[in-house]
## 1
Amino acid sequence: MKTLYTVLDHPATKWVLLVFVLVMPLASLLTWAERRQSAMMQDRLGPNRAAPTFAPWLKLKGILHFVADAIKMISKEDFVPGNVHKGLFTLAPLLAIGPVLVAFAIIPFGPTIFPHELTSTLDPLAPTSGEGALNLADSIRLQVASFDYGLLFYFAVLTLANYGGTLAGWASYNKWALLGGLRSSSQMMSYEVAMGLSLMGCFLLVGSLEPGYIVGAGASSKLSPSNPLNWLWLWQFPALILFTTAAIAETKRAPFDIPEGEPEIIGYFVEYSGLRWGLFFLAEFIEIVFISAVITTVFFGGYQVPFLDPDGFRIGGYMAEVNGQLVSTGGSTFKLPHALVTALQIGAFGLKVILLCWFQLLVRWTLPRFRADQLMNLGWKLLLPLALAWTMLSALFKLAAMSFGWV
Amino acid sequence: MAGHGHEEAHDETAGPKVLAVSKVSPKVRTIAVVRPSEHDVTYLEAARKGLGVTLRHFMKNFFGKRRPAEALAKGEAVEPRSRFKPAWNEIETIQYPEEKTHYPERFRGLHRLMQREDGNVRCVACMCCPTVCPANCITIIPAESDDKGVEKKPAVFEIDELRCVVCGLCVEACPCDAIRMDSGVHAKPVENRGDAIMTRELLLGLSADVGKDPQSTATQGGEGPDWRG
């Protein structure tokens, strides 16, 4: 058993679980969801017919379209045009998809699991040793890697994804692809600044860059982290809007899709086909999932279910220091076993991510594309100064709150 | 939106406000620059409005129920649903092979060959239809009929449905109501061109496939089967 817990707690296991159980299926389903949702928004039905030939009745509202797409892309000819730079041409799709998958390492997708206490309630007032103590050994933290520099890792790694588009454009030996690559790099550079700055207020308020800490602590230590009023969407609402805008720009999708620019230049992947193109396509959708995961984690309390503390639902509790730790206690509670709480919290994380993905698709199919100059104006002249101003305001707010003892 | 000043610039009357015109060259003018308002600069108002529209459509179509296919096909209005049922949505799509639109009575589909009372082909191989056919898609090789009153029958009767222009002249030309285009069936997609050629047996069998009476009500054969004695 000990070995099993060690294996389960290993970062590689958690990463594989996260990517292949949550992220990949969600990203593949998004390819279907995008087409169905856009259809619903435009009074159409969308793809709803794909079914295996041996079971034509198995239509499932068209969910199997993503399987058909995958089979098509895998079985297509792997065409490499002449004059391309073979090495970089091959490297570019991997550079586009790799960093996003790596960046998922910092996302806490669930609470810490204590495998010996799955059936009992995690009472915060239980003694640390002796009779009635909780056995907290072999804990499994549902976060692949918790760095102190947390979200900075995300900014650093996602910048690498930038190379994917740029190199694809350069290596393709095609003027339109090169234009797309250049547009891609200029857009990424511009919006990365605003994106990073827009989260600074959150870091100031919480006092940590670590996503796990942000989820576990919330904006104020006076409220339980599971209280929706303690999540940062309320205290950092302008940051939420700024970050969402900049993050959507980072995914290079409409209304910020000038690197792709379908009607004019087709984009940096114009020379790509088959599975190589599929990797770009998938990377785009994984980025959507990732952005949703980051927004969930920072602004919407991550895996927290409203009013669900580790020992069950609690209304009207307060924060108290027990055994050197701040825990939510008191109030009227509805006790739940640890296993159920964990399941609910992982489910809540998934639900929040799905809802935010849905919102991103809604934006993508509503707003028309910006011109290049509008894009740059928005990034440099609006988002950047606003993010700076909001960072300073947040600092002032934090200073006031600290000097008056509010937090 | 921010760019609306561009469209107006082309229109002389609605263009930008002219502040002064140069005396040397009247084409050189000083105009007031139209700057987008603060509202437009952030795109927030436009984005909010647009998201509202698409969200409304999404909710209506996602939670609503599609109007019955018959009503959609005939373009009929339907009763508004009661308050306790999901409202009708705005999707107009008809799921084609399962649901069909209303076809007019004289719609021309695939050809079918009519039968006599004894089940033989009604065609007498008079060659009117291949003669009139503008697309040359009908091939008839006549043979002598066992029935003395009929003289000829088609040994081969083939229609290349890829060539057919669905004009209906063959039906008009037929003197004995042997060929009709009222099956209501569209030409099927095929993988080989040869598969699009319909043989006599296929054309004869189509009546049963679409559930139509294979026999014509018109009488045929002049004064009887053996009027020549």
## 2
Amino acid sequence: MHHHYQKSLSYKIFAIFNYVLLTVIALLCILPLIHILAVSFSGSAAATANLVGLWPVDFTIDAYEKTIGNENFLRSLWNSFLRVILGTVISMAVMLCAAYPLSKSDKAFHGRKIYMWFFVFTMLFHGGLVPTYMVVTKLGLMDTIWALILPSAVSSFNLILLVNFFRTSVPKSLEEAALMDGANHFTIFWKIYLPISIPAIATISLFTMVFHWNSWFDGMIYMSDVKHYPLSTFLQTIIVQQDFTKMSVDAETMKNLSERTVKAAQIFIAALPMLVVYPFVQRFFVKGIVLGAEKE
Amino acid sequence: MLKKFLATLAATALAVGMLAGCTDNESASSGGSSESKDGKVTITTVRTLKDDTKFRNGEDLNNNPITRWSEKELGIKWKTLWTAPNDEQYHNKIRLALSSGQKLPDVFKVSDGQLINDLIRSGKVMPIDEAIEKYASPRLKEIFNQFPEAFYPATVDGKRYGIPRFSGGNGSDSLLWIRKDWLDKLELQPPKTIEDLEKIMDAFVNKDPDGNGKKDTIGLTLASKNGLATWLADGSFIFGAYGNYEPGSWSKDEDGSLVYGSVQPSIKKGLEKLHEWYEKGYLDQEVGILDEQTAIKSFVAGKSGIISAPPWASGWPITDALKNNPGAVVEPYPLPSGPDGKIGRRGEGLVTGMFLFSKDFKHMDKFFEYLDEAFAYVYNDSKYFKYGLAEGYDYVMKDGKTVYDDKEIPGGRLDPGTYFITEAIPTVPYMLYDLVEEMYTTKRQPKNAYEYTRIVSLGDSFMKAATIVNEQNQYRIENEFTGPPTKTMQKRSEFLTKMERETFANIIYGRAPLSAFDEFVKKWEESGGKEMTKEVNEWYQSVKGEK
Amino acid sequence: MQPAVDLKGQTAAVEVRKQRKWRGTWQLHAMLLPAIVIVFIFQYIPMVGLVMAFQDYEPWLGFLHSPWVGLEHFKTMFEYEDARQVIWNTFVISTLKIIFNLGVPLAFALLLNEIYVVKFKRTVQTIVYLPHFLSWVILGGILIDMLSPEGGMVNRMLSLFGMDSIFFLGDNDWFRTVVVVTDVWKECGFNTIVFLAALTSINPSLYEAAIVDGANRWQQTIYITLPSMLPIIIVVGTLSLGNILNAGFDQILNLYNPLVYKTGDIIDTYVYRVGLLNGDFSYATAVGLFKSIISFMLVVTGYRLAYKYANYKIF
């Protein structure tokens, strides 16, 4: 991958500057994280006093033991995996199907405009918590994983992104040719749109995964049984700041008060699976380039 | 297929449209209390379940020593329908259940004043005056009569709807914790007055008490982000030294009516002091942005010499301070007095929630029986819990003797008290610290697991501190307004509180002159404060009137 | 040089042919059905709840029986003494966030695109994406430490350059800057992904042609990369207009304090404080509806402008 412009002096200066800049930015992003990692392995006394820098003080794995040792931890981890996989698959299937017709021109698909605004509207107007809760209850979804998956299955924001990716990355000529050969919409969607749009699909899938992985509020509202909590909801129960003015506070409560080390440990536990998934998704960005090269 | 689908859709739409809160008929079979053939009663409930509540061997809220005891001895089967990890989410779920017309559990605790009021007005919970009269044991009646004001949060039109879950009464009242090693090093005496305290703070700031050659220490650790009178790193003693009022609290005026603390002239004196102390470097430079849990870092790191905190602070955060600063000695001291000899501190409220009862609940007798047995344990008068709540949990028998030590119990000590519907071994206000004072002064041995876990195991420093707090009980300034937000409060209180916090912070930081306080008071009165005061007193009369 | 996208530029002849061919667009409708159904059930039916904004909603009475109050809640909102301050703060903070959350990730994606050491590129990409996973509850605590005027990391660095220490979180001159910078820091990696995905779909033959024409890298960026990415930039930009009244509730809630109410208090934190007091949904719904209407108008305007000036239809 060497191009002639890379040989020019000005580009070389730029390249050096670029590497330095990106390294600095990366450091800025990772140093606080290293700090948190150090805190998570520190004794809680030192952490409370803010004495931990980038290296643990009074090394201990108590915080991890406390989180992972909880019997609900593994169960919630499983719930989260299930939610992410099922949620992403369903969400992507529904949205990709919808994005295809919406990416047509107004002339090619009458009614497209109405459909589109139907979705755009929901991006900005929301019924709110109470009525949504009622719908979920009435449909009998309470305490089931569907309560976490179906209400958020269609994200208008992601749908619009997909539509635009479809429009910009699929060459019209290819589609025309397929039509000439007598292909129907399902075939074009399956054989042309999907393979070409892999970077876009990877991107939106990633967004959807992250969304499902991070959401905690719906788990809290719709799950009756703690055993059905997804991980983020479970973690939230530990992280959350308690309002002690209305609680009966005694020595026992305070002794168990989970503090900064536990919070810090949770960040890593929560971020770890995404750390594995993301580099994997990045592969598809490169693949997309190769595919794009073949497309004309 | 499509038709069927559309039909379902329409039905759903209709159903939601009809959700007018009048659909009470659903799930009548699942939620309601019922008596089974063997004469046992099932009572449904919901509760908060903090994550650190531990269970043994896969037990849960519906199956543990307490529920087993309750079923076997009292014939009550408890069924916990759902849990939430903290009060905010718990109230959220109850509010949603109320809004969507779901059936309420038989018994449940609520600590949010507005929600209690909403539930009462919805007619879905029932008044219990008669039930108390009929079923409450003499012991319970005596406790209830001792603290009539504990019923105020759930009293409407003279009827009582809730049973209070009592706090420790003075359990989270503060006293001073001071670095004794710093006092000794600088040859200072513990403070008796605010003036003494200022001298000590000055020395702590300027005379390098930690001996590191740097001027990096402060006098007093204080939290102010959520108000200056609070549960940890508390500043209420400063205001208490100048008058009988605390910021943010409604307390009795000389004529017996309730007035709002933050607008009283004595608060101005407190703020003046705080500004002076800030200027002199006695306080954390960041004091304005620190909440309770972030404020303590200066003390824990050994950069601060004084913190005002409750007795339980001996466990946390003070042990952390000792761990970080080898050689440090932290001792509890009584609160200092102001120029006129006045002392005052924020007094913790009497209740931490009210138990409400679904209007369909038929077994109040059983509930009171259960509650009485739980209280019996605290009074050391239980026929079921002689040494503790459950062997193998909070005590074990060894060679005919009871052992409470954490290390002796296989799997560690667990507190089955958290499995009670009260979410902890129930308390009666002031009782715990009375007991501590008695045990501390007489040095007697614990009689049961309760006395061991709640008192002796916490150590000498805790017992000394609790004794000091108990001895200063006459200086408590309690928030006497425990009802739901009044009409004007709902409309104006947000603005007034914001203005208050902003003004106080700016005065402390010297960004506004002290006279800003007078403008604040004037504006407070004009912008709804007057109406609020009137409404609060109307409420006060109405709840007091009956009993 | 023609960008890769040209949506209006299809010839009439093609259209006619297509219409003949594509008669019976039932397949297209069918593909939309699942999404329509889900959105209708979970988004549109709950919109019944918006009537709460015009009611004094009592939970046990429901939407049908709660008393109507008309525009009362909206009036309350504008009569609020600090309404101007709160709306202005929201607007300033969110506008700055919209600008920087568009510009920084774009620049970042372009810079990353110039890196040819794949490992370095992927590592940087992954690292900058990590802060997205930190919740503001946790970050709040860390930032208070880092920005502390007494020995915080940032102030220690400033003192190396001989500067006085700054009380970032308690200073009205600095608070908004802190809010915007930390938000960009947290979200930059995430937004970069969209632009990177767009970059990968640019047709390489365009570059080859440009190289033949002797264009240097800078010229290629200006004449090929940016125009090719324009649709996605417009889309992301327009959609983010919908956030014009969302200044970031979680973030502000965890960072603000009485010292910086003047510059940091926003609509959402205000509504939160009101809600804490009376726990009723009506007022929050009314404010939410007001925000939705403003956002909707802005998004529609953005959509129109994009169509008019860039000749591009977002939706």
## 3
Amino acid sequence: MTIEQKLSILTDSAKYDVSCSSSGSVRTLDFGGVGSVGNGGICHAYSADGRCISLLKILLTNYCLYDCAYCVNRISNDIRRAAFTPEEVAELTINFYRRNMIEGLFLSSGIITSEDHTMRLILKTLQLLRHSYGFNGYVHVKLIPGASEELIIQTAALADRVSSNIELPSSASLALLAPDKTREKVLQPLTMAKNYSLEHQKRPIGMSTQLIIGATPENDLDILRLSSSLYDKAMLKRVYYSAYIPINNTKNLPALTTPPPLLREHRLYQADWLIRFYGFGFEEILNEETPYLDERFDPKLSWALRNLHLFPIEINTAEREILLRIPGLGVRGVNKILKARRFRALNVYDLETMKISLKRLRYFVTVRGKLLVDHSLDYQQIQTELLLLPKPSPAAQPTLFDHFYPTVMGEL
Amino acid sequence: MILWEYDGSFEGFLSLVHKSYALKTIPDTITRSQNSGTLLDESIWIETDPFNSEKVAASLQKYFSKEAIERLMHAFLCDDVNPERDILLYIRIGFKSAEYLNDLAHPTIYAIHGYQRRVLSTLHKMNAYLRFEELEDKTLYAKIEPPRNVLPLMGAHFCKRLRGEPFIIHDRLRSLALWFREGEMKIESVEGYTNPESSPNEKKFRHLWKTFFDHVAIESRKNPSLQRSHVPLKYRIYMSEFFISP
């Protein structure tokens, strides 16, 4: 098999993993050769589906012993199989990197021969890159649940980020669809890596996981509750959400014709952002009565509409944390207001000068004590008016990065 | 209508700032090229004067914060518009009181922030979308056509990234080349142009990259307009994945 054929098969097998970020990493170790990692990620291209290409995202092999129902590479699927050697992966990475095509490598793998054998192959690839090539770029590898602690620690010591995908948000769904995995088994390598990192490294290693959305019956509240606890307790840096794309015909999963729930995925990312950067708790965004995110409005707007008694807010006096909760204001808008209002009490024209849109803002603020809308705040009225606003173009879909100010919005 | 012209260099612009104070005049328009005035306007040519520009640079350093100086230098690179008059006003505000320069609701100051943001966003895109090819002697060579003059800002990023490997970035719109070799960096104007010989590996890796690029996309999520909003067509000229056949 040529390297080109392998690359096409093993890219196809890896592409359903949504993680692509190369940001938020500061490394103190230096391996002596080409490459650097910065705090802000770089997307070197965008594929035809509009997703960022930052890393060479491939599988080492798509041979797999497991039979997870949602996975394209499960053992019972009749697909073309291939395997890279560690040397081949290292050579591709270095050559793409030097040509400025990627920021680094994201290496995952099916389980070949045994968990330990697979982990050993990934470790060997990392060792080649770091020690033989002196590669200093970004490397994200999957830890293999069930591999020995020694191998996991050696791998974590050489990577910028490690991850292990939970995939299904509840233990019941895991038992049903991924009989070879349990949540404890999936999280175990992350715990090992975390403990090692806390003891031996200056900065804790970045860790992430992925949840599949829409394959199983969990609601958004279940999902956000799980992510919050992963951020708090497991110290994960990112939880990725992946709209389930039916690839296998299985009785326990949505039919092959079901479209991926892209809007739901988008709303979950927005809610995730509110939790990580805007000081919201998940129980503020959702509760038992409303366990799903409203698809018509973004989660901050829905929250505000449910809490109209907290508004209007005076933009000239409110504190930063309060400003951040106003629909229509993001981190950048808040920073502009804070800077400018040191010089004068801002009026509507000042907001216009600073290109702060009043479209949604006007329902929720006062400017120098004055309301910007005629009617007193009424939930129904605002909702109707907001629904009549022109829809954003389809191009304005989720972006995982803020390109221009990574330090403001990115993975802080 | 007062129209001033200068040679387009940063030194030239600082000389112009000096002139503005000396003549107690703020021109209505400042342009980079000669002979662009209409018949009705009388244009004045401002000669670059190293002594005066040095004087202005020294007082900028004395009275302006580091961020403010960086901001106006970034704004100056926004050469798809004429930012000079706004930069002149910005400098005049700063000499009154450097503290005023933080007033974002002031139209001039907001405009300067806008120029800087556009330059930095072009820089970020160019740093991401530039593609090197390896030449026969292992030097990395890239052609670019950036919509704003970001070449002077690109050296730092690639020095750090390539760790001392020699590279050349060639701005074909402005006929400028940034060279890095043996620890030294310089920007030169290049007039003639011959396509350098690339290394024998080059074709192979471009094809492999194309294979990866095509296969990483998920068919059921196809979204060409989203792709185009991220990578506008003008940035694709030298991105081989968009034009070589698989």
## 4
Amino acid sequence: MPLLSLSVFLPLLGGLLLLALPRKSARTAHGISIGTTGLTFLVTLAIWARGTLPGGFAQVEEIAWIPAIGAAYRLGIDGLSLPLILMTSLLFFLSSIYAARITDRPAVFVVLMLMLETASIGTFAALDALLFYVFFEVSLVGMYFMIVGWGYEERQRAGLMFFIYTLLGSLPLLLAIIGLFLATGSFDMRLWIDMPPLTGLAAMLALVAMLFTFAVKIPAFPVHTWLPAAHVQAPTVGSVILAGVMLKFGTYGLIRFALQMTPEAFAQAGQVVLAFGVFSAIYGAFAALAQSDLKKMIAYTSVNHMGYVVMAVAVAALTIDADLRAVALNGAALQMVSHGIVTGSLFFLVGMLQSRAHSREMAGFGGLLGQVPWLGWAFILSVFASLGLPGLAHFPAEFQIFLATLNAQPWAIAAILAIVITAGLYLRAIAAVFLGERNGKWADMPDLDRGEKLAIVPLLVLIVLIGVAPSWLLGMMDATMRALQF
Amino acid sequence: MARDLSLLIPEMLLAVTVVLMLVSEMLRAPRLALGIGVIGLGLATALTLPLLETDTSVFGGTYRIDLLSAWAKLILLPGTALALLMARAEIAGKDREGSVYALLCLVTLGALMLSGGGDMMMLVLGVVLTGLGSFALVAWPRDDPATEAAMKYLVFGSVTGSVMIYGLSFWFGGTGSTLFSELGRLEGRTLIALAGLTAVLIGLGYKAALVPFQFWAPDAYDGAPMSVAAYLSVITKVAAIFAFAQILRDLPVSTGWPMVVALIAAMTMTFGYLAALVQSNVVRLLAYSSVAQAGYFMMGIVDLGPGSLALPSVIVFGAAYVAMNLGAFAVIMVAGRSLDDFRGFGRARPVIGVAMVVFLLSLTGIPPLFGFVGKVLLFGAAIEAGYLWLAVIGILNSVLALAVYLRIVVPMYQPREAGQDSAAPAPPLMIVLGATALVTLFMGLLAGVFPG
């Protein structure tokens, strides 16, 4: 059974099935959506059960596409992509559960969401650069229509900015891919990873192009400006997918493309990338501190958390100690998964709060913990995870990243300042929204309903599970990261 | 002789078709003319298939039967058939209906001469044949805007055509032959080569609407019937690009022509999209967008000579461009000429709305649509030829392109104003929309059928 292809195209098939139905009531639309994403999640679990290989790619599927230029349909996984695929299918499953309350054009929304899932899993599973680019770009289109169609007040402007900004961001990658293709005559990513084809100036140009693309996607300072606008205006499910899944395209590409395909150039430019990572992490924290809008604040903490990933990859490129490399890259990979789970949960919770209060201004709330204990405690747990509390999801990742940084590039440990700031801003947010004086305005705010609990509880369980016992994930990653060729 | 003629069966079939169509127009039977046209074009396409592997020339090298001319037929003949159906949807029952069909096919015959020409005389013949028919087509509505557009088109065409003939005389003088295959003799004689090149760029650049010879295009497209505008924006343009490919692959690269073409390509795409950004008439917007697309085509031309991606890129993008641009024009025929007509169009007609989004995203170059595959090959061709800066400009323009096309997409999903209602599209138009949408959507995934 080609399980990988199944996981990639099952959502799309579900969407087509929905389109083919003559009568598309909200019930059938959401039923198909939950059924398809649930089934896809099961398929990815089966992929996990089949396992990965320590070096190279496992479960490879290959079909000719444009043989004349060496482009083919190639899928495969390793310890870097498999955790991301699992996280993606889980987040989409939970999103479809939460989205079941959408009544405005539900069928179109579901089709877009399922298309996004195909694009997302495809991006992580593609082993052909042209195919990777196809999935990478299709996700833009889906997200654009999701923001414009179901977003908040400023959605038109935010959607336009998102689409144009990220298209400008991703086209340099196409140039780099073409450059690599012209040097080898094939789009097979395995070929490029096994023997990086470019050297010297060409490699550096390709690296700069890729770094630009992935920096926009991650997003890293100074090309992060699309993120707050897009996040704040996107519908809740859009924010969850954008932050939880699509930002990982950037960090995944940073390792898969930039680090693995132009390793020498990356080592030369390592200090610059590291500096950008450190600055991004600190800048994201300070920018989040300045926000009074909850959603915007969480959006900026993504800049901070992704900054750590950039740091880790740069540290791995700069060091030649194999153990240290593995530690840094394990930290980076785990940080991606943790961020997907934690930020996904935070965006769900802010969305739930907004759908009740129609406001995201922290100052307008107060004392909500007694009023909505489920929402409050879930938020507090996620926030503690996000600020890196030991025992919760981000801690093992960030600990490894800082450990490797301290050993290899001690100056970059300055980024630890960001953790302090993040802790401060999160505690302030908790105090403002859930503690203190009760605001009588929200006296009849209901607590989470069954559907909302269903969407949020699995994430909370995972936050604790990854924090307490990360080894089931790290084991998968470590085998690949140690064998990573670059 | 018999061999030569047997290789020309598709062209001869098309010529016969045109004659039969004219006869049925004389009999006042426009539907018969349409039928003959569609069947003739279909047959000619089918008869091209056995010639796909042939690489030769007929009549002493003056007309080439090769990969490029075979694919020109496979792209332009079905494209013309679609244009006939679009014309039927627009002008059914009007006076002189059949002559439009006959002229469309006649211009396509000229387009085939252009894309297969191996000789200066054949080039001139193609330019004149496409030109004469096109002038009449633009003037067909017999109202003031159409007459003005046709006059502009005619005057422009005559001047550029004459300049081209004058310039070709330099090449004839330099090589002593009218055959393009002898152009290699211009090695080291840069001045003569560039003098002739300038003239060809003027003559064919006008046909392809390259900057700075694009002035006629927005006026002609806007004044002509919409189906004729659609036809001119794809068939004659692609034919002119293929003619560039036939000519320039024999011109020595050492004369420096790729740099000239690269500069024109960069100017054309940048100007086209900048101008499109400020249009409020969708036909003019698409006119400027098709100017810009001609610039992308020229990125493939730059790579001619040593490059391996030049011909595949031009052929694939040609096929994609014909499908997506015809499709976009067909949607305009349903929705209306003004940007305001598109307000809420996507909600009122969801299926056609999605088709328009597909055409526009494909024109931008978003994967996995057909236009994307073409653009990847074009960027590859430019980089292969060593023109990385041109590829970068192409990419920056793709972003501009998105801004241009989103100007149509954004209002499509805004609430519709009361009292606006577009008529249901005629059945022939539905066929065109269906065919172009399917090709744009799925040919990218099946791009393996194209030559590498």
